[in-house]
Amino acid sequence: MFTFRPYVNASELEDFNEKASLAVRTRWLERFQSIAVQGGWTDKVKIYEMKLKLSAADRNWRANLRLKVRRDWKKFLKELRDMYCKAKTSDSERYYTMTQRKSTSPLEFYYRLNKVADKAVIDFDSSSAGTTSEGVHEEAFGLTSPNDTPRPTHSEVTGSGVCAEAT
Predict the structure, then answer these.
(1) Rounded-to-integer distance, Cα 142 and Cα 149, Å
(2) If the chain, 167 residues long, is cut into consecutive pieces of 10 residues, what is the mean pLDDT of each piece?
(3) Does residue 133 sit in helix, strand or coil?
(4) pTM, whole model, 2 decimals?
(5) Whether the Cβ atoms of residue 80 and residue 58 lie closer than 8 Å to each other
(6) What is the number of other CB atoms lying within 10 angstroms of the CB of residue 31?
(7) How far apart are CA 127 and CA 59, in angstroms?
(8) How far is the C-alpha of 129 from the C-alpha of 52, rounded, in Å?
(9) Could you state, in order of their start, the residue ranges of all structural domains in the chain?
(10) Fewer C-beta within 10 Å: the chain N or C terminus?
């Protein structure tokens, strides 16, 4: 049986940019691996093509790795991921420092919070003491539900005591 594997040229992929955002670097590595699988590259070819895609500074970083790591694709890939494709802050720190972007809706922010809380192993699914994920996020960020805050009455807003306070 013959399996036809067309040669996939690595020039379809731009060079690796270590200064790009974490998401962009991670996505680049995923695309590199996808091209390698499509092309049926051996581990030796993957290492060679990766070396060609690295900048001078990254090649220097690679040169400082042990010879075993440089020549073994799986070990090299692990080192590359650890160096360039992992967040520098812990998941829990990321959770507690998240802010809502102006371009995102509250619901999108809520889903992002849930995803990061799950990674940080913050138990927001626990139903003990009636806690919900909203409750955990509210507690962590000092947020309050619109239903929890009393609405100002007409007299409080206008400053006149003429109208009776509505409940």
Answers:
(1) 13
(2) 67 89 92 92 94 93 95 95 81 75 86 80 58 56 52 48 47
(3) helix
(4) 0.55
(5) no
(6) 13
(7) 51
(8) 56
(9) 10-84, 88-167
(10) N
